[in-house]
Amino acid sequence: MNCTQVTTTLQAYLDGQTDEVTTRPMAAHLQDCHHCGLEADTYRKIKDALACRAQPDTGAADRLRGFAKGLLRRADRTPPHQAPGD
Length: 86
Hints:
Znf_put; Anti_sigma_zinc_sf; Zf-HC2 domain-containing protein; transcription regulation; transcription
């Protein structure tokens, strides 16, 4: 397994959603490759931190709602994309 393959399947691996054919080489690569191992550790820490929070931070949730509303307003004002030659 190489770094590119790890990148595309890392989340599934960390979630326990990979089969034995993928799991063994993934574990070996993460142990041997410093860069990919650090990336996996970072994802694990983020996942653990998120799992510890029973409720999201109210301020963060409000900011996310505001961001989504802004995107919707912008989408309403943007004319539909036309393909070349239309």
